[in-house]
Write a structure and sequence with these properties.
6-stranded antiparallel sheet; mainly beta; 10% helix; 3-stranded antiparallel sheet
């Protein structure tokens, strides 16, 4: 009887685990698994040590990723337009603190990942872990 009671007490803890509400589902964009480490001491990534700066990293994700210092942490977003099928024009470009989709000229905030036009899908976001001056970005 004690074993059953213990099981009933522990069961909610197993189902209570979450991934911090992280939702990366978008029908236009496939999921690719990757892990990269960015050393911000290297000259190519030193701008990430300062708030409101972004760096493009190619060769991972769908169309590469943009890494952004929010001032209180880091965001990493895929460079593929989230509300477009993958075409020759669906690689986003950096414009200040926004990414612009050249297919429809929609701008997305690097702080939130949301479009200013209120479109259905936000930018495809990846997880970021900070360990000193090294950022680990993964999906």
């Amino acid at each position: 009887m004690k074993k059953h009671l213990l099981l009933l007490v522990l069961l909610p803890f197993f189902f209570g685990c979450s991934d911090s509400g992280f939702n990366n589902k978008n029908p236009y964009l496939p999921n690719y698994t990757f892990t990269i480490d960015i050393n911000m001491n290297l000259p190519a990534y030193s701008n990430l040590q300062y708030p409101s700066n972004a760096v493009y990293y190619s060769g991972v994700g769908i169309r590469g990723i943009y890494i952004f210092n929010t001032g209180s942490g880091y965001n990493a977003f895929d460079a593929a337009c989230p509300n477009q099928t993958l075409t020759s024009c669906s690689t986003m470009t950096l414009k200040g603190i926004n990414l612009v989709c050249p297919c429809d000229n929609t701008e997305y905030s690097l702080f939130t990942g949301l479009s200013q036009a209120g479109l259905q899908y936000p930018l495809k976001q990846y997880r970021v872990e900070v360990n000193g001056n090294v950022l680990r970005i993964y999906n």
